[in-house]
Amino acid sequence: MEIEVVEKEALEKLSKISNVQELESFRIEFLGKKGKITELMKNLKNLPPEERPAYGKRVNELREKIEKLFEEKKQQIQKLLEQEKMEKMRIDVTIPGARRKLGHSHPVLKVMEEIERIFVSMGFDVVEGPEIETTWHNFDALNTPEWHPARDEHDSFYITDDLLLRTHTSPVQIRTMLERKPPIAIISPGKVYRRDYDATHLPMFHQVEGLHVDRDLSVAHLKFTLEEFARRMFGKNARVRLRPSFFPFTEPSFEVDVYLSGYGWLEILGAGMVDPNVFLNVGYDPEEWTGYAFGMGVERIAMLKYGITDIREFVRNDVRFLSSY
Ligand code: DAH
Fold first, then answer.
1. Among 128, 159, 162, 320, which residue has the least CB neighbours within 10 Å?
2. How far is the CA of 273 from the centre of ligand 1 (A)?
3. 202 CA distance to ligand 1 middle (Å)
4. Are residues 183 and 261 in the same domain?
5. Is 217 domain-assigned?
6. 0.90 surpassed by pTM
């Protein structure tokens, strides 16, 4: 085979090489043990002796040339590979980061905190009590007799005969009065439990209890406090009315309605003047001390404030619902 032909072919092929595989086949084809350069050398023996040195020299020169070009190509390809690799690892620091969605408080907690803020600004302390309560704190001390339907196992979660999940936050009144001397002004937020589950009842819900004990308190103090609360909670035009009712721990007792334009009168809480029997149960002299108390359902207030119609939404944990408040 002619040297020139091999050279031309080698140069052409080399120029077209673009990857490692092609490079390796090229090396085998031209520079390998059985490659075309070796083949050219084999022609030596067919030449007349005087031509052999010149021929051999030319083949060697061609080998060196191809080897040199081959090395160059190899380096080119390696550089390319490296660039590709770098390109893949490249980080664009100007792309905006992935935003993390921030969580937020549950709407019930938000409303509860708002209720707390309002009463704290009026001078009430916040106190908490246990969710597992004795029947004495939950019922007896609050003047709720053995035969009262609220004590029924159908309505309450009993743990033993004398322990239950508290059915209201009112027992915190008792705990506070036993611990402190009047005057007292407290609210007590927390979870309460009843055997109920429908569009307006949950087996676990939240209440805020209020208690104010001092000398010469009257229904007027109660009404003003609740009006002030309603104005701050529902807007300055909110009005409040008291309807006669009954609770064992207050006398007189009231259901309290708030007037919301577009809705009319809506019941938001129970309240009353602390019953003398309750004072006697905690060792206060009912001749000396007077008090008013109230208790409200937080979910109910949240439903009114936000126009929610099914209380179960609060516990479905549907993020679309929760994040819209
Ligand atoms: N404990 C009552 C309930 O769960 C609410 C209540 C009514 C609390 C009148 C009071 C009160 O402190 O005076 O329905």
1. 320
2. 11
3. 17
4. yes
5. yes
6. no
